[in-house]
């Protein structure tokens, strides 16, 4: 379970995140939906402890990240905005490195690596060096690294960014699978269809604030719009009028 | 979650494998190994050529027919052979066709007969040290011939030659060739210190500024690992590369001294394996500080390129004590041992002068280096917590 309470973060003159609160339950997919610059990445970074909020707090499974950063990070699998690989290391070596950093050892490391290679269908690239991987292959490896320690909570920042159709579908399948395994999944996106396709609960961010939140059905009901795209436009427009 | 030491070990192992696979890291560790002994070899060779006495000398003589007696006498001296000189000796020397020439002046015979001072000229380019020394040998011989003739003329006139030589000067040269050559060994501390700076440089940059440039820093920092363990693992890798590089350079230097022209000058016994081991004990403890500072500087830089230029500037540091110590009026105070780079330089100079080092003398610079390293590591770990540094804002 991931909980964000009244989070605020300012970069110089820009108020990037302005009082964001939401709660993501276990066994559910929660989407942060918003334009580029709406504050999605900053909010997520505050959850996994790389940004210190000016006020408010974030917690994972009840542990406050400001109090126990490593405790929170141990419970989180993170696909961050930066998603580079070490060009001279193979996919499997990446998995081993991160699994070990999370405290796995001996046969548990190899078992976990084998399982991830299987689940993410990366047997063909597992023992190749990362140099020269395609964008899709890179994303697979980075995703596998995020899951190296079998985390109960998963944060995915724009997981389908730049992927082709087949890879996008594979990522969506993975998100559903993680939810069905009972994990708490939070992902960010600016693509409406994607959010509608996989999320149980949606948090719409605009200019650093939560402008609407709820299930897809709840949002449809409150705005009287049928498609999620219309819902999104209606909400952000009414927000702009208020401002 | 892993313990601090376990994380440190995991990061160290990964960076070591990654570094060994990186051609740039290997090159930066191996360049000094290959280059520095080579550079010194040529420096030694030049100097030993200069010190080596000239035994065989071929003298091109212009106008030999004007001074048959002199030329014949020269030709009879040990190691001297006479050849006819070129028409235009000045041009020939300038063009490098011959090293030097002895020119007998037109009026030599006439002046000589009248017992007046007859002239010869030695044409030489004094920049060419070998030619200059050969010409000097000929000059000395001609002067000696002059003295022989002078004595004869005085005796003929019933005067003792000693009347014409009121004072005799003799120089006793106490400088052995070994001591002359030993002054060259001052290059060794410079070479070793330089290697400390170059050996782990690429790792220091690649594991900090490189990690950010490759977009792997954020995923790494999202792991439940102590920052100081991450920084420490990378630091140990950089030190390992640095030490390997210094060790190889030292081994090559020992071999080089054994088989280079310097050995002929008698330095061989002066710097054996034992002394090199003492040198390493003096120089290796500098690596922890250098690597830590290089990492801190590379982390502070805004980009990989910027990191490279800043860290390269740090390499000017080993030249600093060379400049300071070159001033003979500067005194070596004990506290200077605690100044990084300067301290190591002093230790190395002591070893080369033949004095042994006490544990205290070795210990002070080593401890100073470790204290400085701890500071630089703490700074880097702090920088890894800074949003501005991690995300490049």
Summarize the structure.
The complex is a heterodimer of chains A (243) and B (393). In chain A, α6 links the parallel β7 and β8. In chain A, α3 crosses α4, α3 (91-101) runs parallel beside α5 (135-146) and α8 crosses α9.
Q: Tally the beta strands of chain B.
A: 4
What is the H level of CATH, i.e. the homologous superfamily of the largest domain in chain A?
Answer: P-loop containing nucleotide triphosphate hydrolases
Q: Report the radius of gyration of chain B as a whole number of Å.
A: 31 Å
The number of distinct structural domains of chain B comes to 2
The helix/strand class of chain B is mainly alpha
Order of adjacent strands in the largest pleated sheet of chain A: 6-7-8-3-9-10
Which CATH architecture of the largest domain in chain A is right? 3-Layer(aba) Sandwich
Tell me which protein chains meet in the greatest interface and how many residues each side has.
A-B, 34 and 27 residues
Q: What count of structural domains of chain A?
A: 2
Oligomer: heterodimer
Order of helices and strands of chain A: EEEHEEHEHHHEHEHEEHH
The main pleated sheet of chain A reads as: 6 strands, mixed
The proportion of residues forming helix of chain A, as a percent range, comes to 25-40%
């Amino acid at each position: 379970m991931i909980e964000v309470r009244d989070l605020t973060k300012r970069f110089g003159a820009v108020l990037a995140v302005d009082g964001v609160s939401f709660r993501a339950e276990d066994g559910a997919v929660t989407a942060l939906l918003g334009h580029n610059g709406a504050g999605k990445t900053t909010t997520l970074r505050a959850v996994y402890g790389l940004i210190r909020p000016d006020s408010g707090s974030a917690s994972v499974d009840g542990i406050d990240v400001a109090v126990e950063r490593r405790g929170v990070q141990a419970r989180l699998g993170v696909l961050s905005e930066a998603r580079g690989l070490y060009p001279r290391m193979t996919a499997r070596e990446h998995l081993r490195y991160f699994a070990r950093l999370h405290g796995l050892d001996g046969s548990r490391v190899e078992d976990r690596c084998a399982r991830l290679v299987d689940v993410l269908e990366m047997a063909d690239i597992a023992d190749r060096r990362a140099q020269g991987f395609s964008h899709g292959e890179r994303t697979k490896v980075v995703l596998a690294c995020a899951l190296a320690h079998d985390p109960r909570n998963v944060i995915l920042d724009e997981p389908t960014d730049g992927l082709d159709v087949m890879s996008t579908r594979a990522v969506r399948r993975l998100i559903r699978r993680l939810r069905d395994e009972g994990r708490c999944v939070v992902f960010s996106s600016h693509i409406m269809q994607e959010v509608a396709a996989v999320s149980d609960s949606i948090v719409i961010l605009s200019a650093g604030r939560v402008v609407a939140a709820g299930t897809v059905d709840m949002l449809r009901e409150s705005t009287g719009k049928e498609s999620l795209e219309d819902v999104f436009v209606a909400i952000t427009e009414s927000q702009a009028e208020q401002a | 979650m892993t313990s601090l030491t376990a994380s440190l070990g995991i990061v160290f192992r990964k960076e070591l494998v990654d570094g060994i696979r990186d051609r740039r890291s290997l090159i930066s560790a191996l360049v000094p190994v290959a280059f520095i002994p080579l550079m010194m070899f040529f420096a030694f060779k030049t100097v030993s050529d200069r010190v080596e006495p000239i035994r065989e000398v071929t003298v091109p003589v212009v106008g030999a027919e004007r001074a048959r007696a002199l030329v014949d006498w020269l030709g009879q001296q040990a190691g001297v052979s006479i050849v006819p000189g070129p028409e235009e000796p000045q041009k020939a020397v300038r063009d490098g066709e011959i090293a030097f020439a002895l020119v007998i002046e037109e009026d030599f015979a006439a002046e000589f007969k009248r017992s007046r001072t007859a002239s010869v000229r030695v044409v030489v380019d004094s920049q060419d040290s070998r030619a200059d020394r050969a010409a000097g040998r000929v000059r000395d011989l001609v002067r000696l011939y002059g003295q022989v003739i002078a004595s004869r003329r005085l005796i003929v006139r019933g005067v003792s030659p000693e009347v014409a030589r009121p004072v005799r000067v003799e120089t006793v040269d106490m400088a052995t060739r070994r001591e002359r050559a030993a002054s060259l060994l001052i290059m060794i501390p410079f070479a070793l210190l330089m290697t400390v700076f170059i050996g782990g440089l690429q790792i220091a940059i690649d594991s900090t500024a490189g990690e950010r440039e490759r977009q792997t820093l954020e995923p790494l920092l999202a792991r439940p690992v102590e920052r100081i363990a991450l920084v420490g693992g990378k630091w140990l890798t950089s030190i390992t590369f640095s030490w390997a590089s210094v060790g190889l350079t030292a081994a090559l230097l020992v071999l080089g001294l054994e088989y280079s022209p310097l050995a002929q000058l008698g330095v061989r016994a002066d710097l054996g394996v034992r002394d090199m081991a003492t040198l390493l004990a003096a120089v290796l403890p500098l690596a922890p500080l250098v690597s830590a500072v290089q990492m801190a500087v590379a982390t502070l830089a805004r980009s990989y390129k910027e990191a490279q230029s800043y860290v390269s500037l740090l390499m000017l540091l080993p030249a600093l004590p060379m400049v300071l110590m070159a001033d003979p009026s500067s005194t070596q105070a004990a506290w200077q041992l605690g100044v990084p780079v300067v301290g190591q330089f002093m230790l190395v100079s002591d070893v080369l002068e033949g004095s042994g080092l006490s544990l205290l003398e070795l210990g002070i610079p080593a401890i100073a280096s470790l204290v400085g390293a701890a500071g630089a590591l703490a700074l880097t770990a702090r920088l890894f917590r800074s949003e501005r540094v991690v995300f490049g804002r």
